[in-house]
Design a protein that fits this description.
single chain, Beta Polymerase, domain 2, six-stranded mixed β-sheet
């Protein structure tokens, strides 16, 4: 695991700024104002997209309490721009959800679209670059029709390896927006993280989903326990590029008063995701002001990953191969293995043409090996 100590000072300050204790909040605001005397701190906040959140917290205190705040105008500008962006994104999201609902497509909001409302004091304090939706696998076809009618187009790398391969063996579809919209949309019909090692099927998550109303449209969101599981796995999956915002998401989810830690541990065991979840929580524990409950610490200490899971969690080619093997053994019937592996080794001509500009199988194999060994 990479060293997350780089995040300790900034993450701790962000969490204390939002503390339920007013004395702690005031002290954190004063310390943050002092830290902003260094332009490098402002650069850090902007680089990790948390400057709107810092402005929101600082603006809740009087000047008599906080004192002079360096770069306050810059923070205010960031918050104002984020507010304008969020207003556009919320209207766009509500319209898309309404159209999908009219087509009979049930949607679970994932990541930023949910977190900005659930964990943050105001949506503008949680920037979002794309819209992640989880839908029932059986509703992928009508969802794709709606997206096509609105002008969304699949990413170039998305053309199917073989006809019907996407619905049968894949788990998500990335879509670029039309000119009159700004949000990239990722349609998921299953959550997979850490390569193909961990799978969170729709039917396993749906019964415990919550049902808020967003923008006048009824939607679904993950339960607090499944939310933390997903954030742990997703952060682990992208740990080499993870910044403060994702770590803050995870820390806030772990601090949620709605989280039932006993049920969380039960779901980790039921879904078979202990390795990735517990590694991430172990690394995050020193960064959490409240720490972890004793029973969670005990579960982390006692967990022993399965042999294939332990191999798949290792970086490099061996880890990728083990992850593929875990997917084959754990999620596919042996009779489906040829239909899964065949197109990966010998993809459809349309896939080659879309990705390479020509149906060049030798070039495909060279790129396949390069990606495998990178």
């Amino acid at each position: 695991m990479p060293d997350l100590s780089f995040a300790r000072p900034a993450l701790s300050r962000l969490l204390l700024l939002g503390s339920p204790d007013p004395v702690v909040r005031e002290a954190a605001a004063r310390q943050t104002a002092l830290a902003l005397a260094d332009p490098a701190f402002l650069h850090l906040l902007r680089e990790h997209r948390v400057s709107p959140l810092v402005y929101h917290h600082l603006s809740a205190h009087s000047r008599q309490v906080v004192g002079e705040v360096p770069h306050l105008a810059a923070l205010r500008t960031d918050f104002s721009r984020s507010l304008q962006t969020v207003r556009r994104q919320e209207l766009e999201t509500a319209d898309l959800l309404r159209r999908l609902a009219d087509a009979g497509v049930e949607c679970v909001l994932l990541k930023g679209a949910d977190l900005r409302h659930r964990l943050y004091p105001e949506p503008a304090t949680r920037p979002m670059g794309d819209l992640d939706l989880l839908i029932p696998p059986a509703q992928l076809a009508p969802a794709r029709r709606v997206m096509a009618e609105l002008g969304y187009t699949p990413f170039q790398w998305t053309p199917e390896l073989a006809p019907g391969y996407l619905e049968r063996f894949d788990h998500e579809l990335g879509l670029d927006p039309p000119p009159d919209r700004e949000l990239v949309v990722d349609l998921h019909w299953e959550i997979r993280e850490v390569g193909f090692l961990y799978s969170l099927p729709y039917d396993d998550l749906r019964p415990s989903c919550l049902g808020p109303v967003r923008g006048g449209v009824p939607v679904l969101v993950l339960s607090p326990e499944h939310l933390l599981i997903h954030l742990c796995l997703h952060t682990y999956d992208e740990i080499n590029t993870t910044g403060l915002l994702k770590l803050l998401d995870l820390a806030l989810a772990a601090a949620s008063p709605e989280l039932d830690w006993r049920r969380f541990l039960e779901e980790v065991a039921r879904l078979g995701v202990g390795g990735g979840v517990f590694i991430m929580l172990r690394e995050m524990a020193p960064l959490l002001p409240q720490g972890l409950p004793p029973e969670v610490g005990a579960a982390i200490a006692a967990y022993r990953p399965r042999r294939l899971e332990a191999l798949a969690l290792r970086p490099g080619v061996l880890g990728q191969a083990a992850g593929q093997a875990a997917f084959l053994l754990g999620h596919l019937h042996p009779r489906d293995w040829p239909r899964y592996l065949g197109p990966r080794l010998w993809p459809h001509r349309d896939y080659l043409t879309a990705n390479l500009g020509r149906p060049d199988r030798l070039a495909y194999f060279r790129r396949f090996l390069k990606n495998l060994l990178s």
